[in-house]
């Protein structure tokens, strides 16, 4: 019983340091993330970088001057790009099959959000339509 009491008293202290979100400078971004931003957003300045630490994994959210948010996972890969429902994402950030599908079937529309999940990729078009693709970029369905 004494051990349980000690554990219950120490548990909040032990777990308090497991999660941390911190605004950091652009210099704190790893090289791979910087290279991605330089390649796909060459003339857009970074306005804010937030580093998330959780369970020995570090991820980054980067906000650009043009209001686009880019999320990087713990492996330095892009996990999502959000144009805040209005900003067009550069064609270069989209997998070719997805870009071709949108250009063929949704003429006049453009992608304002892209997210890679465990089993699929999801995009949102400027008109609000959400489309789901598999990890290879093949169309799966329209998301309601």
From TrEMBL:
Q: Check the record and name the SUPFAM superfamilies matching this protein.
A: BT0923-like (SSF160574)
Origin, by domain of life?
Answer: Bacteria
The residues covered by the Putative beta-lactamase-inhibitor-like PepSY-like domain are: 59-140
Give the Pfam families listed for this entry: PepSY_like (PF11396)
Name-wise, this protein is: PepSY-like domain-containing protein
Organism, scientific name: Dyadobacter sp. 676
Output the lineage of the source organism.
Bacteria, Pseudomonadati, Bacteroidota, Cytophagia, Cytophagales
């Amino acid at each position: 019983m004494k051990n349980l009491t000690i554990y219950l008293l120490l548990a909040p202290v032990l777990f308090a340091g497991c999660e941390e979100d911190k605004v950091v400078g652009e210099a704190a971004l790893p090289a791979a993330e910087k290279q991605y931003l330089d390649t796909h957003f060459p003339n857009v300045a970074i306005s804010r970088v937030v580093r998330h630490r959780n369970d020995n994994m570090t991820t980054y959210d980067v906000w650009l001057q043009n209001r686009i948010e880019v999320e990087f996972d713990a492996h330095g890969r892009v996990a999502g790009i959000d144009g805040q429902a209005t900003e067009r994402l550069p064609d270069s950030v989209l997998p070719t099959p997805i870009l071709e599908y949108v250009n063929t079937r949704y003429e006049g529309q453009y992608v304002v959000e892209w997210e890679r999940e465990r089993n699929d990729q999801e995009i949102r078009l400027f008109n609000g339509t959400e489309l789901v693709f598999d990890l290879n970029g093949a169309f799966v369905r329209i998301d309601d």
